[in-house]
Design brief:
The protein is mainly beta. The chain has one helix and 29 strands.
Length: 375
C-alpha cells in the first residue's frame, strides 16, 4: 500500500506533489464569530448565484452555527468579506439550539435554500432569514435500535429530488417526502430505511454534480458502505416495502465522509484511506489512496468533478485528481499544511474553485484561492 499522501495502484501519470503555486495560492484567513467544533464535515457553503456574489459558509461551534458571508465577485478575497452573520438573534452571533450541534449543511429543497442543523435529539431546517421551517424531534426509545434513548442523534443529510434524507445513530435513515409552502416545509410522507446498517450512520451523500441521478450513498461506524436507488421511494412511502440498495463493501474502519460525483463514490475512512467505488452497473472498488497519516475528517469534490479535497487531523489539506469511470486513476495535485491545527472541514466554492478549510478550536476560515495553473 502507498504511504500517506500517495496514490495506490493506477496512479495518475503526472505524479504527486505539484508545486503549490501551480494550483492554489497560500491561504488567507477570515475571522469567524466562534471557533469550530472537533466534528467531521464541519464546513458547508451556500454557493454564490447570479443575483448574489456572496458565498455563505456554515460552521458548527458547540451548540451554535456560525455563518460567514464572503464576497466572491471575481475570486475569493478576504479583503471583500462583508461580515460574519448570526444564525439567529441571540447576541447577533449564535443560534442556540436545544442541544449540541453535530452538523450544519446547506441544502436545496423544492428550489428553496435551507440550512439543515443536526444534533442530539433533533433535526432542524432554517430559511435564509434564520427562521425554523422544519423540526424533527427524536426521543427516548425511537426505533428501539442502536443508540436509542436520550443520546440519539442525526448525522449526514442530503436531498434527493423531493426527499429529505438524514442518517441516525440507530442505524436507520429517515426519509421525508417534503414540499415547501408558505415558507414552511410540509412533510407529506415519511419512512425509515432500515436493514442496511447495524451501527450509527455517520455520513450520507447524493450525486451533487448530476441532478438527474437518483443514487444516494451512506456509510456507518463499522465501515459499511451502501448505495441506494431512490427511484423506488414513491411506492415505498405509499405502500411500504424495501428500497433497492447494494452493499459496496465494509471498510477496515469507520466512514468519516463521502462524496458522489458522476457515478464514482469517494469514502474517507478513520484509518487515513480514501476509497473510490463505481456505483453504476459494476458497483465495485476501483481505487484506494493512503491520503492522511491520521484520520481524515472531511472530503469535497468540485463542481466539475475533477478535483477531490481532503483534510484531516494531521493538519494537511490534500487535493487529488478525481477518478472517473473512464480513467480510474488519481494523483496528488496540491498539498498544504496548516501548522498545529486539526482540520475538520473542507469545501470548494463553485464560482472560483477556491478551497475553504476549518480547524478545531480555531476561529479562522482558511481560503486557498485557485490560480490559473493546471486543471
Amino acid at each position: 500500500m502507498a504511504g500517506p499522501g500517495q496514490a495506490g495502484a493506477g496512479a495518475h501519470p503526472h505524479g504527486a506533489g505539484r508545486a503549490a503555486a501551480e494550483l492554489f495560492t497560500v491561504p488567507e484567513s477570515i475571522v469567524l464569530a466562534a471557533s469550530a467544533s472537533a466534528l467531521p464535515n464541519n464546513l458547508s457553503v451556500l454557493h454564490p448565484t447570479a443575483a448574489s456574489k456572496k458565498a455563505v459558509f456554515a460552521v458548527s461551534s458547540m451548540n451554535a452555527v456560525v455563518l460567514a458571508e464572503v464576497d466572491v465577485s471575481a475570486r475569493v478575497d478576504v479583503r471583500e468579506v462583508t461580515h460574519t452573520v448570526a444564525c439567529g438573534t441571540i447576541d447577533k452571533s449564535h443560534f442556540l439550539c436545544p442541544l449540541s450541534v453535530i452538523q450544519a449543511q446547506w441544502v436545496t429543497l423544492d428550489g428553496v435554500q435551507l440550512l439543515a442543523v443536526m444534533g442530539i435529539g433533533y433535526v432542524q431546517l432554517l430559511d435564509r432569514k434564520e427562521r425554523q421551517v422544519f423540526r424533527y424531534a427524536m426521543h427516548r426509545g425511537h426505533d428501539g435500535g442502536v443508540g436509542s434513548g436520550d443520546s440519539i442523534h442525526a448525522r449526514g443529510v442530503c436531498i434527493v429530488r423531493k426527499y429529505l434524507c438524514f442518517g441516525m445513530s440507530t442505524g436507520a435513515i429517515m426519509v421525508c417526502e417534503c414540499s415547501v409552502k408558505g415558507g414552511k416545509v410540509r412533510v407529506v410522507h415519511k419512512a425509515d430505511l432500515r436493514g442496511a446498517h447495524d451501527a450509527a450512520v455517520t455520513t450520507l451523500c447524493r450525486d451533487e454534480n448530476n441532478r438527474d441521478s437518483v443514487a444516494m450513498a451512506s456509510g456507518d461506524a463499522t465501515g459499511r458502505v451502501v448505495v441506494w436507488n431512490m427511484d423506488g421511494l414513491d411506492p415505498l412511502l405509499a405502500m411500504g416495502g424495501e428500497l433497492p440498495m447494494h452493499v459496496l463493501g465494509t471498510l477496515e474502519s469507520p466512514c468519516m465522509s463521502m462524496v458522489l460525483s458522476h457515478g464514482v463514490l469517494a469514502v474517507a475512512s478513520f484509518n487515513g484511506l480514501v476509497t473510490f467505488f463505481e456505483t453504476n452497473e459494476a458497483k465495485r472498488k476501483i481505487l484506494e489512496i493512503a491520503a492522511h497519516a491520521r484520520s481524515p475528517t472531511a472530503i469535497a469534490v468540485n463542481r466539475a468533478g475533477t478535483l477531490l479535497a481532503s483534510v484531516g487531523e494531521d493538519s494537511k489539506l490534500m487535493v487529488w485528481h478525481f477518478p472517473t469511470l473512464s480513467d480510474r486513476s488519481s494523483a496528488l495535485a496540491f498539498s498544504a499544511v496548516i501548522a498545529d491545527r486539526m482540520l475538520h472541514g473542507v469545501t470548494f466554492v463553485d464560482t472560483t474553485d477556491a478551497v475553504a478549510v476549518t480547524a478545531y478550536d480555531c476561529n479562522e476560515l482558511f481560503i486557498f484561492n485557485r490560480t490559473s495553473g493546471l486543471l
